[in-house]
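Q: I have 237 residues here and want to know how they pack in 3D. Can you give me a structure?
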Amino acid sequence: MDETSPKLGRQSLLTFSGLDGAGKSTQIELLRGRLRARGLETTVVWVRGGYTPIFSRLKGLARRAGGRHVPPPGPGERRSEAFGRPWLRRAWLVAALLDLMWLLAVRVRILRGRGRIVLCDRYLVDTLIDLRLNFPMEPVERWWLWRAVERLAPRSDAAFVLLVPVAESERRSDLKGEPFRDSREVLSARLAHYRALAPRSHCTILDGSQPAAEIAATIAAAIGLPPSNDDAHQSAA
């Protein structure tokens, strides 16, 4: 079957945001399976300013070229010292935003133009929270470059924010062996930002503590996909 639902076109953009360990990747893969079963092509794009695949490769090259002069990945004293220099901090932010602009304004639009459904693992709301927490000294939200990114980024056809309690996020991150898990204080701040920004960003908040099949059924219903056999089994249980 190759028909799309009334709410889901062949150029749809669906975004998944939220705390680490809340189930974003799981839901993206479950949705990809549903769409694949309907003959629909999808592409998953990782969207997080400063951490995109291209930007991460550039940072790796810079570390190899700069040797000990460039701080290693992850939080630490050397990284804090480096970003304590205003020129370096602002140069990093400008580069990250330009990379994000290319990713969203060019690559995502090209993918949609080719008839693919784009599933974004994180989106602008996640980057905005990162900027607020990691660079509170820089009013990036008022920069013309950030506003340009917001204007040029395609608007999602459906946006979901998956949230879990802080303790559950910690537990799941530890199970996955996350090397740079946020502290409890930072996770609590992220959770508060997500709850405040989700309505403004037209995102649907989902309880990531619920069974994955139930969340998947909710997402499918929100974008107009018919129930699957798995949903029927879940309801019967």
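Q: Anything worth noting?
A: The first strand starts at residue 13 and ends at 18. The CA atoms of residues 91 and 107 lie 23 Å apart.
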